[in-house]
Automatic annotation (TrEMBL), chain C:
Organism: Thermococcus barophilus (strain DSM 11836 / MP)
Keywords: 4Fe-4S, Electron transport, Iron, Iron-sulfur, Metal-binding, Pyruvate, Repeat, Transport
InterPro entries: 4Fe4S_Fe-S-bd, 4Fe4S_Fe_S_CS, PorD_KorD, Pyruvate_synthase_PorD
Entry-linked NCBIfam families: PorD_Arch, PorD_KorD, PRK09624.1
Protein name: Pyruvate synthase subunit PorD
Cofactor(s) essential for the protein: [4Fe-4S] cluster
Subunit structure, as described in the record: Heterotetramer of one alpha, one beta, one delta and one gamma chain.
Domain 4Fe-4S ferredoxin-type intervals: 44-73, 74-103
Source species, domain of life: Archaea
GO molecular function: 4 iron, 4 sulfur cluster binding; metal ion binding; oxidoreductase activity, acting on the aldehyde or oxo group of donors, iron-sulfur protein as acceptor
């Protein structure tokens, strides 16, 4: 086994450190077993960059269980506890309670970050109860939902976070044109209903924004939540090189707008705030999972996207 | 030694406080609730420094205890019946991750139909989860059991969770005198936990519970079994030490009562064994040569003690306040299995008693004694399993 | 009581494995995934044209492995031991300094 110090990428040339907009230190190691172009793996890399070693991770059943490495291997440079599918919220609550009982500083500058990293199924569906409990009790921890819009680890089944019109293995497209007929569940709105101190959406295409939000989640006491948009080429039937482009288009079409909710106030963090959203087709056409959608289906989705976007803008206007 | 008149549940709460638990995550359920109420009261009065997590379900109670224990804390919870069943998945997780969590389960019947009364099926259904199980006969044993449980669970060769089991209402809500040693003596008996691993060593970060392929999984299971085997020794050592320090010896995994010259014995677990001991005294006056064998630890199962007992008696009446549908009483099933490959072949009969909290009295035991005596004289079972209370 | 016919085997297994197997399936070596050379998965390989590179770091920033490092002059270095060939770097490169070519093995 290669000792930690011999793992490549640990030395930091000063000239590079100055120019980079994200931390240079790598705490997520190559050799992990994510698919080519995996958005979740890139997300993990950013989180581990942001928090360095002083974070305790909890990962439930999801692709990241595999990505983090089968025993005795680990792609993490920080402590990691694997847990059951529906328990992320509860386990991070327990870890936080233990740290406090032991007198550790949790959250804040130099404090230990307690991070739950769960997929959309593990958050929006089976883990929703534990998430709600964690948020409501006010633990000093961060819950990150990496959203790839289906149960990818079990082989691409729909979750409540799967969008209207998407093909999955249990909402296939067929001769009778059976599609996913339900719109994406707005988990972030459920989170905000708990009146948490900090909640935000983020995207792997905007790492500076994501890392800024991770830092904010560390500074603000109480429970924080980040919903990270993380494309999955395998499940989305998209080319592996398009993961970043798709994540960017999801933001540009306002399908997945970037915003923050901080102590009761909404703030939209779009790259070009004045720009009108691009048509949703631009996001859909790069992905095989939407190929069964008719023109009418696309209109239905487009209408939903714009309506949700208007709602968010109103919230930012009224509660900004 | 300080004495308090407390319910079984309060005995459990005092024991958790005296064991200096650091994290309690629990969810209310009858008849467990007064345990966590009492703990909350200790915290509110500033009598205990405990992080209390009022979780939103029993599943999360166990999950939060798992997180806390993995982060190095001494974690405690309590539950009952439906709550224990909901925890089931995480019970496996606690033992698989080798976390010495201690939980009190107040034995309560499973629904439907709804019942809140005593029945051992809830805890016995968790037989294969890798938890040790201790059945308390009285409130004193609930208290002592919790203190010993932490010491056994946290032993460096064990690192497995323990369930301390008490009867619904018969113990949980019934007041009795409980001896509670001074805190400093308990602290000597039970020093702070030294974890097998901790998530807080940031210079040497670990990953716990990752995927194990078929090439490795098997050995991890074997390690749990080895720890259970070690626990048999540790339980006896800790039980002996407890006796030396506090005057109540728990070095026997099966407590034997007047078995030396017994023709046959009653075997069972939990509070009903108090009644059985009472009955044994009376029956002996009536000319029966009987004794009682109280199985304290169901996991790890006291195989050798059972063999030693079975060698020297003609019959064992196994009293099960539980049932495994499609088979028989669970203790009976286990005991028969243990003796199969030995030369001890007493006549064994299974009496299913007291399900859902039905009274089980001295008179019932007398009737069973009469039946057992006849069977032993004939040398032949009338039937193997008897649903004793059945309304015919 | 009867003795397991596998007792000798169990003892042998125990002896050989106590050193290696950690109770609770604990991975003690952080970053140990690096012994897994995922470069073997690659079908297309990124080829780098230094002349076109403006050192914007986007390829480095967006690599999910990470299999792109930066040299002393701030140019990207492609780590073919781990690069799975997803092509994100080529797709994101603003000057087309990276092109994906079929791997010849």
């Amino acid at each position: 086994m290669v000792p930690l110090e011999e793992v490549r990428g640990m030395e930091i040339p000063e000239n590079i450190k100055k120019r980079l907009s994200i931390p240079f230190e790598e705490n997520f190691y190559a050799g992990h077993t994510a698919c080519q172009g995996c958005g979740a793996a890139l997300g993990l890399r950013y989180v581990l960059k942001a928090y360095g070693k002083k974070a305790i991770f909890t990962i439930p059943a999801c692709c990241s269980t595999i990505i983090a490495g089968p025993w005795p291997y680990s792609a993490f440079g920080a402590p990691l506890f694997h847990t059951a599918f529906e328990t992320t919220g509860a386990v991070i609550s327990g870890i936080e309670a233990a740290l406090k009982a032991k007198g550790y500083k949790v959250k804040g500058k130099d404090g230990i970050m307690v991070v739950g990293w769960a997929g959309d199924g593990g958050t929006a569906d089976i883990g929703l109860q534990a998430l709600s409990g964690f948020l409501e009790r006010g633990h000093d921890a961060l819950y990150i939902m990496y959203d790839n819009e289906a149960y990818m680890n079990t082989g691409i089944q729909r979750s409540s976070s799967t969008p209207y019109g998407a093909w999955t293995t249990n909402t296939p497209g067929g001769k009778k044109h059976f599609l996913e007929k339900r719109h994406k569940k707005k988990v972030i709105d459920i989170v905000i209903a708990h009146k948490v101190p900090y909640a935000a959406t983020a995207s792997i295409a905007f790492p500076e924004d994501f890392i800024r939000k991770l830092k904010k989640a560390q500074e603000i006491p109480g429970p924080s939540f980040i919903q990270l948009f993380a494309p999955c080429p395998t499940g989305w039937r998209s080319p592996t090189d398009k993961s970043i482009e798709l994540a960017r288009l999801a933001v540009q079409t306002a399908y997945f707008p970037l915003f923050e909710y901080e102590n009761g106030k909404y703030k939209i963090n779009m790259p070009n705030p004045k720009k009108e959203p691009k048509p949703i087709e631009e996001f859909l056409k790069l992905q095989g999972r939407f190929k069964y959608m008719t023109k009418e289906d696309i209109e239905v989705l487009q209408e939903w996207v714009l309506r949700e976007w208007e709602e968010l803008k109103k919230k930012a206007e009224v509660f900004g | 030694m300080p004495k308090k008149v407390v319910s079984g549940n309060y005995a459990a709460a005092y024991a958790a406080k005296h064991a200096r638990v650091e994290v309690v995550a629990a969810y209310p359920i009858t008849p467990q609730t007064s345990i966590i109420e009492k703990i909350a009261e200790f915290i509110a009065n500033g009598e205990a420094n405990i992080q209390y997590v009022p979780v939103e379900s029993e599943h999360s109670a166990m999950a939060a205890c798992i997180g806390a224990s993995a982060a190095g804390a001494r974690a405690f919870t309590a539950t009952s019946a439906q709550g224990l069943a909901l925890m089931h998945e995480m019970l496996h997780w606690a033992s698989g991750a080798r976390l010495p969590i201690v939980m009190v389960d107040v034995n309560r019947a499973m629904a439907p139909p709804w019942s809140v009364w005593d029945d051992q099926t809830d805890s016995l259904a968790q037989r294969d989860t890798g938890w040790m199980q201790f059945y308390a006969e009285n409130n004193q044993e609930v208290y002592d059991g919790v203190l010993m449980a932490f010491k056994v669970a946290e032993h460096r060769k064990v690192n497995l969770p323990v369930m301390i089991i008490e009867s619904a209402f018969i113990l949980s809500h019934t007041y009795d005198i409980v001896d509670m040693p001074p805190q400093e003596e308990i602290d000597e008996f039970l020093p702070p936990r030294e974890p097998l691993y901790t998530l807080t060593d940031f210079d040497n970060p670990i990953a716990v519970g990752a995927l194990a392929t078929p090439a490795d999984y098997y050995e991890f299971r074997y390690k749990i079994e080895k720890a259970m085997e070690e626990a048999r020794k540790v339980i006896k050592e800790v039980g002996k030490e407890f006796g030396e320090r506090f005057g109540r010896d728990y070095s026997q995994m099966i407590e034997l009562y007047k078995t030396e010259d017994a023709e046959f014995v009653f075997m069972g677990m939990g509070s009903l064994m108090g009644t059985v001991k009472e009955a044994v005294d009376l029956l002996r006056k009536e000319g029966y040569k009987v004794g009682a064998a109280k199985v304290r630890w169901f996991r790890p199962f006291p195989k050798e003690e059972l063999y030693e007992l079975a060698k020297n008696v003609d019959g064992i009446a196994v009293l099960d306040r539980n049932f495994s549908f499609g088979q028989e009483g669970i203790l009976f099933n286990e005991a028969k299995g243990v003796l199969y490959n030995t030369d001890a072949k007493p006549i064994m009969k299974n009496y299913i008693v007291g399900l859902g909290g039905r009274d089980f009295t001295v008179n019932d035991i007398r009737a069973i004694a009469k039946n057992m005596k006849e069977i032993i004289e004939k040398g032949k079972l009338d039937r193997e399993i008897e649903w004793y209370h059945l309304k015919r | 009581m009867a003795e397991s016919p596998f007792k000798a085997d169990i003892e042998r297994v125990e002896k050989e494995l106590t050193e290696k197997m950690t109770p609770g399936a604990i991975a003690y070596i952080p970053g140990s995934s690096v012994i897994n050379k995922t470069g073997s998965w690659r079908v297309f390989k990124p080829e780098f044209n230094k002349d076109k590179c403006i050192r914007c770091f986007l390829c480095y920033t967006y690599c999910p492995e990470p299999a792109i490092y930066l040299d002393e002059e701030n140019y990207p270095v492609f780590d073919y031991d781990y690069c799975k060939g997803c092509g994100i770097c080529a797709n994101e490169c603003p000057t087309k300094a990276i092109t994906m070519v079929r791997e010849v093995k």
